[in-house]
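agent: user wants the structure for Prephenate dehydrogenase/arogenate dehydrogenase family protein from Collinsella ihumii. delegating to structure tool.
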Amino acid sequence: MTTRAQDMRIGIVGLGLIGGSFARAYRAAGATVFAYDTSADTMDAARIETIAGELDDRAIPTCDLIVLAAYPGACTAWLEEHAELLGSCSDPAAGTGPVVIDTAGVKTAVCERAFELARDHSFAFVGAHPMAGTENSGFAFARADLFCGAPMVLTPPPVDDISRLTLLDRVNTLLAPLRFGTFSVTTPEAHDAVIAFTSQLAHVVSNAYVKSPTAQVHHGFSAGSYRDLTRVAHLNPSMWAELMCDDAKNLSQEITWLIDALSAYRDALDAGDRDRLRMLLAEGDRIKRSLDDANERAS
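agent: tool returned. relaying tokens verbatim.
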């Protein structure tokens, strides 16, 4: 298998922030990059300095890695359309043919169908979620260094231990030019349960926070706290609505727990119970410090 970035051939489906950053990172490392995006303008911009050509049926069999960086539904649709072609040029047992990964923010909705297609057509697929991004979207904001030091979460298919380790080793080698900081391996279901808290809930809270009438008159009265809490209120509504609906059960539970916690603060305020409010604040502070300490020990 190819190990030098200069010898790699990479396919990218979707040239938004994440797909565009994959494309730019691999191109900066010396790889040959092919891509497909539904926007002709985006493809024209990418051709200037990033991609060698379109990821079509001729380019697909020549790729070492194909990155599906579209919405979850579009990822599975592309796989369904190209599964037969991928199978015809692949032998997972021999480690040949393209390895396919996706970068969607939910894994169960994509992996359930992708694992089935990969099994039935004999090509290699691993779910993947790069834990990196910005509040901006689109190819114009893509950066070659977006993934440097960032965590990557992988969700391999339910195969035997040797096959899984071999496949993960291939993926780690192919992703090496992007210089991810850490790799974690889990199941799609476990991923989605945690990501509902670490990512989706944060976007819901930020997006809901700016709906306060006071937001219209905050200028001159805000600093770091406002900036930090509102950073991800600016988002891609179509993408996040699809991600959240695909993970609706987990996210709904997280929102319920948050509402319960917020209600306790409101009740203490309405009752004028300073001691109760102090206890609630101290409890949150203690939990955050404990989490920070655990992170420091883990690193």
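agent: one observation worth passing along. The chain has ten helices and eight strands.
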